[in-house]
Design brief:
268 residues; eight-stranded mixed β-sheet; 40% strand
């Protein structure tokens, strides 16, 4: 079932958002690509856009700005941020620093929606933490245009497994999927909720990062549409153990993957 109701279990990716120099251009690109509906939000939320798919929240897009509302100089790179659910942001942040990670932003309350923070793991990958109040996160997953997978790419998978396992109830185990030897799955309560891959499999110079995957019905047609919309192809559509996928970048450089999965897991 693609509709998501109720809170996400701690450790589960529950939301993604994108920070960009040109918010309207990003909205135009992703709404055209995935069939989302979205507009620049009100001033009291800093203009934050909650994009909808079939009337349910699927992702956020925000303009890059400093806390005081000024334009950053230099402008930070355009990037998608994955948020992991937690029962307590404050407790998780203590575990983060104890385990060698750093706090980038927060903790802070987001109106009555929840409490959040941004951290970097010891290798430098940025990830968010979300403690839900009235907003659980993505309301629809695992179908065309919706979040289906979140993946950590890092240079030391063993160290990353130790770090995330000490911060959240995440277990890292080698996949049993034939043809995907060496891939690591993140599990919560025995259920696969994401994955991890060694940076050695990627081009030299790619830094540690979390990347969102969006489900699509036809990878090749979405790849072509992204190019028509001014995006670029980082890894052309190819078949692999979990399905057919491509790695793309939006016109402002935000990286994401699209996949038509052979099987689909429902986050909880």
């Amino acid at each position: 079932m693609p509709d998501k109701t109720g809170p996400y279990k701690p450790g589960t990716p529950c939301w993604v958002d994108l920070m960009v120099p040109d918010q309207q251009a990003a909205l135009d690109f992703y709404c055209d690509l995935f069939g989302w509906q979205g507009e620049i939000g009100p001033p009291e939320t800093g203009g934050y856009s909650v994009c909808l798919l079939k009337g349910k929240p699927v992702a956020g897009i925000m303009k890059a700005m400093n806390p005081d509302g000024t334009v950053p100089d230099p402008m930070p790179p355009t990037a998608w941020t994955t948020y992991l659910a937690t029962d307590s942001v404050d407790a998780a942040l203590k575990a983060v620093t104890d385990a060698g990670g750093s706090v980038v932003m927060g903790p802070q309350d987001v109106m009555d929606l929840g409490r959040m923070a941004l951290i970097t793991d010891p290798a430098g990958a940025v990830v968010g933490l979300w403690q839900a109040d009235t907003f659980d996160g993505a309301g629809i997953v695992n179908e065309h245009g919706a979040l289906i997978w979140n993946e950590l790419n890092t240079g030391d998978t063993r160290a990353a497994a130790d770090f995330y396992g000490s911060v959240l109830p995440l277990e890292a185990v080698p996949t049993q999927l034939p043809g995907a030897e060496g891939y690591i799955e993140f599990k919560v309560g025995g259920r696969t909720i994401g994955g991890m891959m060694d940076l050695a499999a990627l081009p030299p110079g790619v830094p540690p990062h979390w990347m969102p995957y969006f489900g699509v019905d036809d990878v090749d047609s979405v790849q072509a549409a992204a190019v028509r919309g001014g995006g670029s192809v980082l890894a052309p559509a190819f078949d692999m153990a979990a399905g057919r996928m491509a790695v793309l970048a939006d016109p402002q450089g935000g990286r994401f993957a699209v996949i038509k999965a052979n099987t689909q897991e429902q986050p909880e």
